[in-house]
């Protein structure tokens, strides 16, 4: 029988070597730079620098934006075709109107995102573009922005810039929370990124984009991660719904005051506070979640 061996280092998806029957597979390429180093570099940046980059970059030099949108929206199309096999998505489809207008935007985004995440968690065999190491995060960071652009009839280049902001914000937040953590990456990173992309699409300025981060972090901080499963679709549904509602608040300059809860000045203090909660307050909780999952044992 053939045997294969793969070695990861630094993070769960950083493969450094693959062997088949004891021989290296030279056709496989690997990252030269440690993933942790990349995130530390992002973490050291001023978030406003990322916003300015999004506003001024030549989108033609970043074809991955179009590729990501195309790949993830193709997956969304396949997921909608697979509705008869989805439990949650099938029910939501009964109550959803497919019109893509701005008044119905929150429920439309919730519906599509939940269907797509459920389809992926149930094994739909079609590729997606990940963001910050997660396919679900890639979907959640993409679909709400694209659907908002459709509803508002935003120019295509503007959509690509909004997607860039969504992805960069997701990566920026993950540099604080960690790639694998006891909190939900879709809720606390990807949906926040999508919300920032939505604010950008709707003409929001830097302060309003930062308000979006604060509002969502202050609201979603308690959402835990208890593994990849079909129930992730409901977490995604709740998170992207909040992303749209919070965007409307942020555009009216409504934000959670810095004196409340885990909030603070700008976005650096809230994200640093979130990081402290994860690193200091949650290690025991993480272990308990894993124990509960392991205790279930293999099914059937």
> Any idea what the shape is?
globular
Radius of gyration: 19 Å
| Straight-line distance between termini | 27 Å
Query: Given this structure, which CATH class of the largest domain is correct?
Result: Mainly Alpha
Poorly predicted segments: none
Please give the number of β-strands.
3
- Assess the beta-strand content as a share of residues: under 5%
Summarize the biggest pleated sheet: 3 strands, antiparallel
Average residue pLDDT: 90
Query: Roughly what percent helix?
Result: 55-70%
Q: Would you identify the CATH architecture of the largest domain?
A: Orthogonal Bundle
CATH topology name of the largest domain: 2-methylcitrate dehydratase PrpD
Structural class: mainly alpha
Q: With helices defined by DSSP (H or I, 4 residues minimum), what is the helix count?
A: 12
Strand/helix succession: EEEHHHHHHHHHHHH
* Strand line-up of the largest beta sheet: 1-2-3
Number of domains: 2
Task: Report what the structure shows.
The protein has 300 residues and is mainly alpha-helical. It is 61% helix and 4% strand. The protein has 12 helices and 3 strands. The chain has helices spanning 35-43, 47-56, 64-81, 87-94, 105-121, 135-152, 156-177, 185-201, 206-220, 232-251, 268-281, 283-296, and strands at 4-8, 15-20, 23-24. A 3-stranded antiparallel beta sheet has the order 1-2-3, with no helix packed on it. α4 runs antiparallel to α5 (105-121) and α8 (185-201) runs parallel beside α10. The protein is globular and about 65 Å long.
């Amino acid at each position: 029988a053939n045997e294969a061996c793969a070695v990861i280092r630094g993070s769960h998806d950083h493969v450094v070597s693959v062997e088949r029957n004891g021989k290296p597979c030279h056709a496989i390429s690997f990252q030269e730079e440690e993933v942790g180093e990349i995130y530390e570099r992002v973490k050291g940046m001023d978030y406003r620098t990322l916003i300015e980059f999004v506003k001024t970059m030549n989108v033609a030099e970043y074809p991955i934006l179009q590729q990501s949108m195309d790949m993830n929206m193709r997956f969304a199309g396949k997921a909608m075709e697979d509705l008869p096999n989805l439990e949650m998505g099938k029910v939501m489809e009964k109550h959803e109107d497919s019109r893509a207008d701005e008044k119905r935007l929150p429920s439309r985004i919730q519906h599509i995102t939940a269907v797509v995440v459920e389809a992926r968690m149930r094994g739909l065999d079609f590729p997606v573009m990940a963001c910050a190491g997660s396919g679900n995060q890639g979907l959640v960071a993409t679909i709400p922005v694209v659907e908002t652009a459709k509803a508002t009839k935003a120019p295509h280049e503007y959509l690509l810039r909004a997607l860039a902001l969504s992805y960069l914000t997701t990566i920026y937040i993950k540099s604080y929370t960690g790639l694998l953590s006891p909190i939900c990456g879709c809720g606390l990173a990807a949906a926040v990124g999508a919300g920032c992309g939505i604010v950008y699409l709707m003409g929001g300025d830097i302060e309003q984009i930062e308000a979006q981060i604060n509002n969502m972090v202050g609201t979603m901080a308690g959402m835990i991660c208890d593994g990849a499963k079909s129930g992730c679709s409901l977490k995604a549904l709740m998170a992207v719904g909040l992303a749209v509602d919070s965007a409307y608040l942020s555009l009216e300059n409504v934000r959670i005051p810095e004196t409340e809860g885990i909030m603070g000045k700008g976005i650096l203090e809230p994200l640093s506070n979130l990081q402290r909660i994860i690193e200091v307050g949650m290690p025991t909780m993480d272990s308990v979640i894993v124990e509960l999952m392991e205790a279930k044992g293999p099914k059937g």
